[in-house]
Amino acid sequence: MNSEIFLPALTITITFTACVAILSLFIAWKDQQSRSKRLTSALEDLERNTVFSKKSEKTLRSREKWFRVLFNSTRDMVFVYAITADALPGDILEINDLACVRLGYTREKLLSMTPLEIEIHDQAQVPALYPKTDLVVMSDSELHSRQKKIATSAARRMIEQLTKDSHIRHERVFQRANGTTFPAEVDSQYFMLMNKPVVMCTARDITARKETETALKESKQHFHEFMSNSPIGIAMYNSDRELLNVNKACLRMLGIPGINEFKHFNMFNNKFLPSHATKTLEIGDSTRFEMAIDFTEVLQHSMFITSRTGHAWFDVMMNNMGLDHNYRPRGYFAQIQDITERRLAEAELCKSEQQLRQAEKMEAIGSMAGGIAHDFNNILTPILGYAKMILRASPEDEPSNKYAQKIQKAGNRAKELVSQILTFSRKSDDSGDRELKAIRIAPIAKEVLQLQGTALPDSIRINRILKSEKDVVLADPTKIHQILMNLCTNAGHAMKENGGILELRITDFTVTKRANRKFPNLVPGPYLRISVKDTGVGMDQSTREKIFEPFFTTKKSGEGTGMGLSVVLGIIAAYKGTITVESEVGVGSIFHVILPIVEMATEEERTESESMPSGNERILIIDDERDVTDMISDMLESIGYETATVNQGFGALKLLEMSPDHFDLVITDQVMPGITGTEIAQKIFEIRPNMPVILCTGFSGSVSLEQAKEIGIKEYLTKPIVMDDLANAIRKALGHETATTPQSD
Which one of 102, 231, 468, 697 is CB 3.0 to 4.6 Å from 670, fit for a cystine? Predict the structure, then answer.
């Protein structure tokens, strides 16, 4: 090889080799440097990881401590348990301190138990799953075994549902270590832990809630029983006034068959509500009111379905049950009471009170009338007596005879006025003590209408309707005549301006036990009803309430005394009857006189002597009024008697003690200072047992005819004394002649 070529080639080879070697060394050095850096970095990473690991471990321990604090600080019981391969609750893996305290076990003990061991098995399912005959023959162990099977089956169903839904909430009953139990609400959460299924349960004691629920349930039950059994009607409404419930009492009161039909009755707005209640209910306030319902009108207008008829009254309380957050009523509570019987009783009581007040008023006026009658009759006795004597002593054509007639006429009018006062006060001898007779009413009614026909104007037509064949009552025909005349005269007066129809109707009438409420003073039985009807001006209610009061009249001055209807009332009451009135302004009035009937009537006519009886006996006259004793003395001496007068009762007794056989008869007044006529008579009978005594009285209220007869008094006269009556009474008392018992008309 050419050296020139070789050397350069060698040089190039060496140089390349050297370069390769140097490059290899450089690469090796760079690799060493890289490994050194990686090692350093690895060491640094290791050091950092070590520090981080220490920090993580510290953090983990801190978090575990925080978890423990949180786990044990919760107010609920918390425990975690595993799920076995056969899908049942397994061992408890973790449990908090509160669960240990509530259950009464140690932590170690609970971690060795399963949830089934701290739960009460559902014993209620045992009777449903097994016949009663099996339960009777089961031992305690067999029963416990079957209960455990039931609990196991229920637990498996729960695990299946939990696996499907991941979360369920249910109630369980836990048993403490001491055997006591308590209810709990359990939230169960299913999840995987280290590829293993577990369940975490949060349980809270719901004993207080259960007690509250039980109390609420009992309260609802009590309220339901109260509402169902309450005699008070109850209806409940919501805030929109829609019916929620109504009890049977309310339905029964209103005659409504059911709650659906009751909804058609608007308790808040109907025509039977008083206006003030409607206004109060419109603004939602509570109110109490009385509601009067005419069920006949309800049925006519189809307001709501009801089985009731007629009128009824209800006491209603509508209560607002408070306001909600929007200040709207939460609802309404209605209480309803049927007060129909109470209202009827109150009406009857009011009527009785009015009758009692009227009776008390009449009693007071009667007492006053007795005093007036006594004094007034003492004044009338000499007036009428001397007028009678003048008439007997003077010829008819002399002026003195005519004057005496006028005096007698005026005296008789005054006498009749006193008699009327005593009649309505029920102290008149004419209406009480006089022996009544069975008389027919129809003939008296015909006579009255005949008299009215001549007195009434042609514009008034008279109708007579007699529809009774048993028109027989026990009464005085004069007083019946007075009643009919008074009623017919009043009817004619009511029609004197415009005319009309006066109707007198006599019909049979029966008072039944049911109708006795309307006529409380009448005994049930047959009666006669006399109705006097007019088509005149009529009366309003206030006038109707006063027409029977004495001295009340709607007539002008001089046309009436206001005594007529008072007298009528007194006579009818004495005959054990009653009188009612119906009247409407502009339509007319009708008076109904109701009197008890009797089976048969006998008529006796009084026969008057053609001449006045006389005699020559010696008569002692006792009266504290000198005018009266003087008049009687003059009157008796004019017909032949010998008289002596004494104006003091005790003085008369001393005179009789001195000469008990000097007098043949004693006439004594009843009311005198210091001693009464009946007391004088009793003392006279002690002095001379067979002495004839005639008693005179200004009014029959002081002593009755029967009382006088029981004492032994022969005859009884009421003042003012009429000469004919006195003459007849003397002859009868002396036993020389039969005479009827004289009466004052």
Answer: 697
CA-based nearest residue to 728, from 610, 629, 612: 612
**Kindly report the CA angle at 385 between 384 and 386, in degrees rounded to 5?**
95
State pLDDT tens for residues 304-355.
888 888 889 999 998 888 887 777 778 888 899 999 998 888 888 888 887 7
User: Is the pLDDT reported for residue 135 higher than 80?
Assistant: no
**Is 74-205 assigned to CATH 2.30.30.40?**
no
CATH of domain 429-596: 3.30.565.10
Using CA atoms in the order 552, 555, 556, 560, what is the torsion angle rounded to 10 degrees? -70
| Whether 117 contacts 138, CB under 8 Å | no
Q: Which helix (H) or strand (E) holds 314?
A: strand 311-320
Question: In this structure, is the dihedral angle defined by the CA atoms of residues 94, 99, 100 and 103, taken in order, positive or negative?
Answer: negative
* Nearest partner of 528 among 508, 511, 510, judged by Cα: 508
- In the chain, the amino acid numbered 75 is R
Task: Tell me how far apart the alpha carbons of residues 484 and 479 are, in angstroms, rounded to a whole number.
Answer: 9
- Contact in structure between 733 and 715 (CB atoms under 8 Å): yes
- Has residue 545 got a pLDDT over 90? no
Phi, psi of 619, rounded to the nearest 5 degrees: -125, 135
Q: Distances in Å between the alpha carbon of 33 and those of 18, 41, 43, 48, 543?
A: 22, 12, 15, 22, 141
Whole-model pTM above 0.85? no
Residue for token pair 């009311």: 671
Q: Retrieve residue 147's tokens.
A: 């209960």
CB neighbours of residue 49 within 10 Å: 12
**Is the Cβ–Cβ distance between 694 and 730 less than 8 Å?**
yes
CA quadruple 266, 271, 274, 277: dihedral positive or negative? positive
Three-class SS state of 301: coil
The letter for the amino acid at 451 is L
**What CATH number does domain 213-338 carry, 3.30.450.20, 3.30.390.50, 3.40.50.2300, 3.30.230.10?**
3.30.450.20
**How is residue 176 annotated by DSSP?**
-
Three-state SS at 612: coil
Mean pLDDT value across residues 231-247:
89
Contacts of residue 698, defined as CB under 8 A and 6 or more positions apart, other chains included, come to 370, 373, 374, 375, 376, 377, 378, 669, 670, 671, 718, 719
C-alpha distances in angstroms, 526 versus 199, 350, 707? 97, 28, 32
* Look-up of token digits 């007639």: 405
Name the residue among 591, 372, 378, 342 with its Cα closest to residue 490: 591
> Please, is 310 exposed, middle or buried when counting C-beta atoms within 10 Å of its C-beta (0-12, 13-18, 19+)?
exposed
How many C-alpha atoms does 443 have within 13 Å on its Cβ side? 8
